[in-house]
Amino acid sequence: MSFFISQAYAEGGAAAGQQGSDPMMSMLFFVGMIVIFYFLLIRPQQKRAKEHRKMVEAIGKGDEVVTNGGILGKIVELSDQYMTVEIADNVQIKVQRSAVSTVLPKGSLKAADKD
């Protein structure tokens, strides 16, 4: 059965020393990857989260909004964590303030109703 398995032989000591990588280079590579991830992924996400937080804090009664679920409506009541949005005549829903994805310009709902 040994004819199916090939023998593995170790290389000489001098050749093994030449193949080892410099630990400083591997550390530099690791730090470089962290910097790349920070600037390409983490920093833009933090910026978007900060802009969303500012938008949610700035919304007020009468603003027209789109929720994360795609519901368009006009804010009729606000509290610290929740808001009541009128989505049709005499139809109101209560959603979290953080569920707002976009604040629309005034009159957008009237234009959407005509379509």
Describe the structure.
With 115 residues, the protein is of the alpha+beta class. The protein has three helices and five strands; from the N terminus they run H-H-E-E-E-E-E-H. A five-stranded antiparallel beta sheet has the order 4-3-2-1-5. A hairpin with a 3-residue loop joins strand 2 and strand 3 (82-88). The longest helix has 36 residues, at 23-58. 6% of the residues are buried.
Entry summary:
The chain is of the alpha+beta class and 115 residues long. It has three helices and five strands; from the N terminus they run ααβββββα.
Rg, please? 29 Å
Which descriptor suits the 3D outline? elongated
The H/E string reads HHEEEEEH
Main β-sheet description = 5 strands, antiparallel
CATH architectural category of the largest domain = Roll
Helical element count?
Answer: 3
Strand content: 25-35%
**Tally of domains:** 2
- Structural class of the helix and strand makeup? alpha+beta
Mean pLDDT: 86
Number of strands: 5
CATH topology of the largest domain: SH3 type barrels
Low-confidence stretches: none
Termini separation comes to 78 Å
Helical content, roughly?
A: 40-55%
- The largest sheet has its strands arranged as 4-3-2-1-5
Assigned CATH class of the largest domain: Mainly Beta
